[in-house]
Amino acid sequence: MKNLFKIRKKIDPKLYLKITISSFVIFVLIWQVMYSCKVVSNIFLPSPLGVLQYLANDIISGNIWGNLYISCYRIFMGFLLAAVIGVPIGILVGCYNSVEAYIQPMIEFFRYLPVPAFIPLIMIWVGIGEEAKIAVIFLGTLFQLIPMVADDVRSVPEDYINAAYTLGAKRFEVIRKVIIPAMLPRLMNTLRMIMGWAWTYLVVAELVAANSGLGYSILKAQRYLKTPAIFSGILVIGLLGLIIDRTFSGVSKRLFPWADGGAK
């Protein structure tokens, strides 16, 4: 307890877990109070129990599983494509000022463009199939990923690089044996954050002529004012995001136990 409000001081893991659980409990209690007091019309704000009942029925009936699978497929494909392309480019941008001068301004330009504005072009370029949904997630994450990876490269201490040169390492050996291993803990956290970005673009991606998926089910429920269905979809997306985020954190701690990158 003595470290509870000390800056950057770790607290007992059990206490950490209790505080985490209490934050969710308080959130649900506030939600229930707002429902009971009719702060918002019950048509637009269902009770927590009503949402859970709807979700349970959806799970028992099996309706949720197809939407869950297709949404996860779209998310992971878009994320993997962005990672495969964005990580090498980000490393080059972080290593070479000449590459940075050529790529960084263009990346910064595209990074601030709203992805929904690309939807008409995406439909023209790749059609309205699965490729279009994946492309939306890909574009939404790629231009965020590249500058973050470049910053991860720049975080590697210059002393490491100079020491490698002193020991006779060549340019590409420095990148392969010094920079990349040193940046990996931070890269894991970067990918973890980018996965969060990917989930935020799910509903946008499923605007493109979709007839399945969690985002599609939310939009469909909106048309008929089925607010328990809307909240149920949001809850599932949030839980999936939390599970994936904790998985990234756990893998990072196991692979790089020495690094500060092992986020809580």
Word description of this protein:
The two termini are 18 Å apart. The chain is built from 11 helices and no strands. The longest helix has 33 residues, at 63-95. It has a domain at 69-252: MetI-like (MetI-like fold, Orthogonal Bundle), CATH 1.10.3720.10. The chain has 264 residues and is mostly helical. Helix 5 crosses helix 6 (130-154) and helix 10 (214-223) runs antiparallel to helix 11 (227-255). It has helices spanning 13-36, 48-61, 63-95, 97-111, 119-126, 130-154, 158-166, 171-200, 202-205, 214-223, 227-255. The chain is globular and about 70 Å long.
Mean pLDDT: 87
How would you sum up the major sheet?
A: none
CATH architectural type of the domain at 69-252: Orthogonal Bundle
Q: In CATH, what is the homologous superfamily of the domain at 69-252?
A: MetI-like
- Approximately how much helix is present in the residues? over 70%
- The CATH topology of the domain at 69-252 turns out to be MetI-like fold
SS element count, helices: 11
Total strand count, please?
0
How much of the sequence lies in strands comes to under 5%
The CATH class of the domain at 69-252 is identified as Mainly Alpha
SSE topology string:
HHHHHHHHHHH
What's the alpha carbon Rg, rounded to whole Å?
A: 22 Å
Low-confidence stretches: none
Query: Could you tell me how far the N terminus lies from the C terminus, measured between alpha carbons in angstroms?
Result: 18 Å
- What is the approximate shape? globular
Structural class of the secondary elements?
A: mainly alpha
